[in-house]
Specification:
The complex is a heterodimer of chains A (about 210) and B (about 400). Chain A contains 1 helix and 12 strands, in the order H-E-E-E-E-E-E-E-E-E-E-E-E. With about 210 residues, chain A is mainly beta. In chain A, strand 6 and strand 7 form a beta hairpin. Chain A is extended. Chain B is mostly beta strands and about 400 residues long. Helices cover about 10% and strands about 45% of the residues of chain B. In chain B, a hairpin with a 2-residue loop joins strand 5 and strand 6. In chain B, about 30% of the residues are buried. About 5% of the residues of chain B have low confidence. Classes of the chains: A mainly beta (about 210), B mainly beta (about 400). At the A-B interface, helix 1, strand 1, strand 4, strand 5 and strand 12 of A face helix 1, helix 2 and strand 1 of B. Strand 4 of chain A pairs parallel with strand 1 of chain B.
């Protein structure tokens, strides 16, 4: 009897953990998809829109190009004519719907933009990691949004600070972001000769995940 | 199994079951293990730096200083060779308000004279050396053919031209006024061009200031990618008098005259660019004492009324030669020499400098005299020659 009891208890524990594992894995399996692999994000959606690029508070027009990285093609904006001491500010929008395509977000989620900036000085043979700041504010999502202020104060995006991405059914939202880069004391050991063929690259990643 | 044992087992089973429920509920609360959908967007902004091309042809020039005032002319350009700056350049030329030591520490005005070296700071705070005497000179722009940007600033305005831009030149005439007493023959001075746009930068032009009636300096310049040694020659506005009206005399009180200075340049190991001589003196050499026009100038005669440097004679082989040239007052010109890399022996350009003076004891006796220390001139070698270039 004692032995049976021990086996029974062990079976209950084992069965429980098998159940827990199956439940966890099931969250990453789209049972309706017959293709190899699985899709992610099919109901999590956000719309990224490029906006304006400023150099020293003056609007400049960048050239839209593409580049290939790890077999994938990505979009890029290129601008010329930057000089040491220039500040660059890039604005963009993130919303939980796309009024053009009609796609909307249907799950509760969070998103987090992240940017890293590098200054490459080939004459000096160095690449500098340059600081940049990201600020954001909520803006009206359309003409019919009369409650969201048009000119709200900017908030600093802290590291690890996620922003709410609600389903459209709950709330339509649109956020404006600005990435600011000002290279100043960060490159103290450079001279004007080092800036021949120099390139400043801002890489922007917007990561979003659903709550459950 | 008795009752007691049965109850015990039920309690154990119940506890295990409760524990498993708690584990399940706890794991439900861990967001990172239950996020199901993820999405990522990626973008990139690439900003290419434009290069600053800013140049001057004033490096190495000399200026004659009389009564502590000297004038110098040079060009500033927004291009170097084929490369043109593709932004506006705004600059001003003034005496720096602050000088620094090599560590970037500001030097108080009263300590400038004692300082070993002087520096100005660029936009990155890096010290750039300037000539020691720079602090003694105030700079005033007498004339600048460039576009004025107000507040003493001048501007090269960016004009797009195809994939490049329009290269522009500003001709600048500066007046330098020295404080702190008379110049002792010769000293180095730096002109500091302070750029405001496209970013703050300093551009230093080193020159030589001299109280002598004729000055020599040199620098290397590129002509069609070939490096030439450019010899600058500048003469005072007045040979016979200082600007304050005082007669210029020798140590033994022989008065100077206004007549042209005679230079006899000899060189070895260099090739004189004779095509440039045509910009100095192109045409027939007239000797007013000789009725036969077109003949050579008599090297022993003099010219009062020449207004530009006049070549008397030139004899040149491939890498050596002699040039005799008369230089009137207010002259400012250059000679170009190409160094011969295959020349064996020493390479040099030397000059015999003769000024036309009157004898203090006999005013009717006028003659050429070697411009040495007796006339507050140059320290010469044993051959009474001054080495301009080697």
């Amino acid at each position: 009897m004692k032995k049976r009891f021990i086996f029974f208890a062990a079976y209950i524990i084992f069965a429980f953990f098998a159940f827990l594992t199956a439940v966890t894995l099931a969250k990453y399996v789209y049972t309706g998809n017959t293709e190899v692999g699985f899709q992610v994000g099919s109901t999590l959606f956000f719309d990224y829109q490029r906006h304006e690029l400023y150099r020293n508070d003056q609007l400049i027009v960048g050239v839209e190009t593409e580049y290939v990285e790890d077999g994938q093609t990505y979009q890029r904006i290129e601008t010329m004519n930057v000089v040491p001491g220039d500040s660059l500010v890039y604005h963009f929008y993130v919303s939980n719907f796309d009024s053009t395509t009609g796609e909307v977000n249907v799950v509760d989620g969070l998103f987090y933009p992240n940017a890293n900036t590098k200054l490459s000085l080939p004459m000096k043979g160095k690449i500098y990691e340059v600081d940049c700041t990201i600020q954001y504010r909520q803006v009206p999502y359309g003409d019919d949004d009369t409650t969201t202020p048009k000119d709200d104060v900017w908030k600093n995006l802290v590291v690890g600070g996620y922003i709410d991405l609600p389903p459209v059914a709950t709330k339509k939202v649109k956020y404006e972001f600005k990435i600011s880069v000002l290279i100043d004391d960060q490159v103290e050991d450079t001279t004007s000769d080092d800036y021949f063929d120099a390139v400043l690259t801002i890489k922007l990643f917007i990561n979003a995940a659903s709550d459950n | 199994m008795d009752n007691k044992q049965f109850k015990k087992r039920i309690i154990i089973l119940g506890s295990i079951f409760l524990l498993l429920i708690c584990i399940y509920l706890f794991s439900s609360g861990l967001r990172t293990t239950i996020s199901r959908y993820i999405k990522r967007e990626q973008d990139e902004i690439k900003a290419y730096y434009t290069s600053l091309y800013f140049a001057s042809d004033g490096e190495g020039k000399s200026l004659a200083v009389e009564s502590n005032i000297g004038y110098v002319e040079f060009n500033l350009m927004n291009y170097i060779g084929e490369d043109v700056t593709q932004r506006d350049i705004e600059y001003k030329i003034v005496k720096p308000s602050t000088f620094y030591d090599i560590n970037g520490n500001a030097i108080a005005e009263q300590d400038l004279a004692a300082a070993e070296k002087l520096y100005v700071l660029d936009v990155w705070g890096k010290p750039k050396e300037v000539a020691k005497s720079t602090y003694l000179y105030t700079v005033e722009v007498v004339n600048n053919t460039g576009e004025s940007a107000g507040s003493g600033n001048y501007k090269f305005t960016y004009e797009k031209l195809g994939t490049s831009a329009v290269g522009k030149t500003h001709h600048v005439n500066l007046k330098l006024t020295r404080s702190g007493g008379e110049i002792a023959n010769e000293e180095d001075v730096s002109i500091v061009v302070q750029l405001e746009k496209p970013y703050k930068e300093v551009f230093i032009i080193n020159m030589k200031a001299s109280s002598r009636i004729i000055t020599f300096s040199n620098s290397t310049t590129n002509k069609l990618d070939v490096p030439f040694e450019e010899v600058f020659i500048q003469s005072a506005d007045l040979y016979a008098y200082f600007k304050n009206g005082t007669q210029r005399t020798s140590v033994e009180h022989d008065p100077f005259t206004s007549k042209a200075v005679k230079l006899t340049l000899t060189w070895s190991g260099f090739i004189l660019d004779e095509t440039e001589l045509e910009t100095l003196h192109n045409g027939t050499l007239n000797n007013p004492d000789d009725k036969d026009t077109g003949s050579k100038i008599n090297e022993d005669t003099y010219y009062l009324d020449i207004t530009k440097p006049t070549i008397a004679s030139i004899k040149a082989t491939k890498t050596s030669g002699q040039l005799v040239i008369f230089v009137p007052q207010s002259s400012d010109f250059s000679l170009y020499f190409l160094r011969d890399p295959n020349h064996s022996g020493s390479s040099y350009v030397k000059v015999k400098i003769e000024i036309y003076i009157k004898d203090a004891s006999d005013s009717n006796n006028e003659k050429y005299a070697i411009y040495d220390e007796k006339y507050y001139g140059f320290t010469l070698d044993s051959d009474k020659l001054y080495t301009v270039l080697n």
